[in-house]
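Quick one, tokens below. Sequence please?
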């Protein structure tokens, strides 16, 4: 199974809002996560020791759906039903309907606060193996709730939390460079080429981080 196979699977999703910029811009980073980084078990999606992934910008789920199908979380045939009436694979992912989806998302700005809660929950349970990775969009960081999470996570020393920012330069508010902005709140920030699998892999290696890590995956404006 390669990323090209995943691109092929994405074409099975033919409903509205299926594999446009919002989804395709996440593909390389998601593939690296699921192929090289995250510890998951498709045969036991709720295994307690798993790593948790949250797609905060839930309006672009098709790349994630295709990867979950490729990895065996659910049958590939489901992809052909996406965005259609009665489907499990809606235009926003639903954790009650889709194995491997950890959080129902689509209302922007909520994924990071939920991921902070998940990371705290793991700590409260004494589970120091699993990590939480949340994907946010650059325009999504215009949402105020994101910044509550941005402030709180370093304060709590959540080294088990990684925020992946897919920066395709779509933010409508000029907030300065994310590297400087997030760094000023105490995040360990890594800036990488959002299409470079080697750079992404290295950036996701956080070791025993004492603070949360932010991986800024740069996608040049106009590219997907
Ligand atoms: Mg964006």
């Amino acid at each position: 199974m390669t990323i090209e196979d995943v691109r092929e699977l994405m074409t099975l999703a033919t409903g509205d809002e299926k594999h446009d910029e919002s989804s395709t811009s996440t593909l390389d980073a998601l593939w690296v996560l699921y192929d090289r980084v995250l510890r998951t078990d498709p045969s036991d999606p709720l295994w307690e020791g798993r790593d948790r992934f949250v797609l905060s910008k839930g309006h672009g789920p098709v790349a994630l759906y295709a990867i979950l199908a490729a990895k065996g979380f659910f049958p590939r045939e489901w992809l052909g039903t996406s965005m259609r009436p009665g489907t499990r694979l809606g235009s926003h992912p639903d954790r009650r309907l889709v194995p491997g989806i950890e959080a129902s998302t689509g209302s922007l700005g909520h994924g990071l606060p939920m991921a902070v809660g998940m990371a705290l929950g793991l700590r409260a349970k004494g589970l120091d193996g699993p990590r939480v990775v949340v994907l946010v969009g650059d325009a999504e960081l215009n949402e105020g709730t994101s910044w509550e999470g941005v402030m709180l996570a370093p304060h709590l020393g959540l080294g088990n939390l990684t925020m992946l920012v897919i920066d395709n330069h779509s933010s409508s508010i000029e907030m300065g460079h994310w590297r400087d902005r997030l760094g000023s709140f105490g995040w360990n920030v890594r800036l990488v080429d959002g299409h470079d699998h080697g750079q992404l892999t290295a950036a996701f290696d956080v070791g025993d981080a004492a603070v949360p890590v932010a991986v800024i995956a740069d996608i040049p404006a106009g590219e997907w």
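The domain at 3-218 is CATH 3.40.50.970 (Rossmann fold). The chain has one domain: 3-218.
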